[in-house]
Predict the structure of Drug/metabolite transporter (DMT)-like permease.
Amino acid sequence: MKYLLAVLFGAMSYGVLSTIVVLAYGKGYVLGEVVGSQLLTGCILAWGLAIFTKWRERRALRERERESSGQQPAIIAPAAGKLTWKQRLLLMAAGTPTAITGLLYYQSLRYIPASLAIILLFQFTWMGVLYQAVSQRKRPTGIMFLTLAVLLGGTLLAAGILGQGATKLNLMGIVLGILSAVSYSLFIVVSGKAVPSVHPAYRSVWMLTGGMLLVFILFPPYFLFNGLLWGDLLLFGFLLGLFGAFIPPVLFAVGVPHIGEGMAGILGAAELPVAVLLSSFILHEQVSLLQWGGVGLVLLGVALPELLKSRRRSSSAH
């Protein structure tokens, strides 16, 4: 149960980001300051976790050495924490799509409501299916086609296109939202293949470092020197770094190996209703019953493959 709750809370943490970003924009901060402060604080937290993990590994190694030799051993660094510079650079490169996702997603919030931006970001679900079909040269199953149809229908409802028409939607915001989904699906593919044998704490810290450096190159961190960081930006950056760059990767690393990727995908969908709820209650965005029905359909589409798979397993067991 604790592993299910870990993944659920990790997904819900992602859901609060859009609301925090809109509030930061309301205070006058710009894209580079918001994303830069998020990755800076997230990176500091991740380095703290990596150092703590390293310390625990050293202590465990010393205890094992003491038990085996019966005397006080010398301090030896564990091989698990050793990374070559090639591996570090690979992980840093793998972390750049998550920074690009943040830039595209947060910029889309300047043009479209947060409730719509998160729905567009959620299109990474069918994009992942499409990538898998193309890369493996394998035709999607009937279940996948049904899932994509449910997701598309849910998206049209949740975006409010059927209720108010597409003319009221900002094209730039729509394009940025879709591109953020493309970038996020790329991040999922790349991050899973980048040095998977290394401890998650070490993988995430170098990936975050790579993402932060990319953002700092695109948007030089003047906020570090002009005093902006010591205002509200520090609070917004800390909250975004905590809920976006630190808590979810740690909780997913703890929970996903125990509950499986299928169940993790279902629980990960909790991000969507949390984001829409906060947009409605905190940002006071109008979310109609039709749109809530679309959110429900999107969640059903995410869960459908795993639910049908579980049903087939239970039927074959009987």
